[in-house]
Write a structure and sequence with these properties.
Layout (H helix, E strand, L loop, with lengths): L19 E5 L9 H14 L3 E4 L9 H11 L4 E4 L2 E2 L5 H14 L4 E6 L4 H7 L6 H18 L4 E5 L4 E6 L12 E5 L2 H10 L2 E4 L9 E2 L5 H15 L7 E6 L1 E4 L3 H13 L6 E2 L6 H6 L3 E4 L1 H15 L3 E4 L4 H11 L3
Parallel strand pairs: 1-2, 1-15, 2-3, 3-5, 4-5, 5-8, 8-9, 9-11, 10-13, 11-15, 12-14
Antiparallel strand pairs: 6-7
């Protein structure tokens, strides 16, 4: 899956992966509801995004697996993913069957993203136990071990702390070989080490507060590169087989980067955007160099993304549904690089 191996933080132009671009949608009221959900994915395909992913929440959104089943028939080229499934909501034996079915129906376009689950409120409302972080990570470790085998069509015997499986054969056989790629995301060292052990794709995220807001202190290019170094150390010889992803949280198209960055700092001081926790002081340079904030003209944002890849080796760029249109012109500037 790689063009070569990047050593240390970043790598030479000849050793870095080509860019890929991910969009997504929830099918919620703000996006036009479930009826417009399919059109959103079709638009992402027309724009040239490589993947379209659906998150996994019990609130105001479509069910991710049913939605991907529909998209497998409504789209032609774009890869289909989850970003990411909450492990505690599904048994891995059941999930493996659903995942392989989507891979077959989509003619080999599935990327299965899965995580430990983080939104306690939803588990509580559903009457599902929300376990401690350590337990959720150990449970996910077992799930990933089981998914790896069942999604290859192998027969599994497994006797773990959380799951016991006896002689279960994975079916249907997936279209992709040896199985659809598995993506795991995280910001903390334990989750990133687990991802380095199992995942084909790792989403490198800032750490979050208990209510899910991204920590500003983790959004610098330096902290991001350090997280990648931790993945490299944990993955060892596997590192060159892993694709690294990140999602841009804020996109602002402007002809004056510095003035807009100064305005962004003022907005942060006033608590905007609300999904970011201001737990440190940021400078203009911090804003302009952050992988998670894209400010400037299309050409300037494209150059910023090239620099992020050079410094971190991350190459798989994701955007939020509300920014899919704004980011689309950047794709044409970077496609094929």
């Amino acid at each position: 899956m790689t063009e070569g191996e990047a050593t240390g933080t970043g790598g030479s132009e000849s050793t870095l992966r080509k860019f890929r671009f991910g969009a997504g949608g929830e099918g919620n009221k703000e996006e036009g509801g479930a009826r417009k959900f399919v059109k959103l994915a079709q638009t992402a395909e027309e724009y040239g995004y490589d993947t379209f992913a659906v998150p996994d929440h019990l609130g105001n959104q479509v069910g991710p697996l049913a939605a991907l089943g529909a998209l497998s028939q409504a789209t032609d080229r774009i890869r289909l993913g989850t970003s990411v499934l909450a492990n505690g909501l599904r048994h891995p034996a059941v999930l493996a069957k659903e995942a392989n079915t989507i891979d077959v129906l989509s003619k080999g376009r599935l990327e299965l993203g899965i995580g430990a689950g983080w939104l306690k409120e939803e588990f509580d409302k559903a009457g599902i136990e929300f376990e401690s972080p350590g337990v959720r990570i150990r449970r996910l470790d077992e799930s990933l071990t089981i998914l790896d085998k069942l999604m290859r069509g192998e027969t599994v015997d497994f006797d773990g702390e959380f799951y016991q499986i006896s002689g279960l054969e994975g079916s249907p056989r997936p279209r992709q070989g040896p199985r659809p790629p598995i993506a795991v995301g995280g910001g903390g060292p334990k989750m990133l080490r687990l991802a380095a052990k199992h995942a084909d794709i790792i989403s490198v995220a800032p750490g979050t507060t208990p209510d899910g807001r991204m920590k500003l202190s983790d959004m610098t290019i330096e902290k991001t590169a350090a997280r990648v170094d931790g993945i490299r150390e944990a993955a060892g010889d596997r590192f060159d087989q892993i694709e690294l992803n990140w999602t841009i949280a804020v996109i602002v198209i402007t002809d004056d980067r510095h003035a807009t960055a100064e305005m962004a700092l003022k907005a942060l001081e006033q608590g905007y955007p609300p999904n970011i926790e201001r737990d440190t002081e940021f400078t203009v340079d911090d804003v302009l160099n952050s992988p998670y904030i894209a400010i400037g003209s299309f050409e300037e944002i494209a150059e910023q993304i090239r620099e992020v890849r050079r410094r971190t080796s991350m190459s798989y760029v994701g955007v939020f549904p509300t920014q899919m249109d704004a980011f689309a012109p950047v794709i044409s500037l970077l496609k094929g690089e």
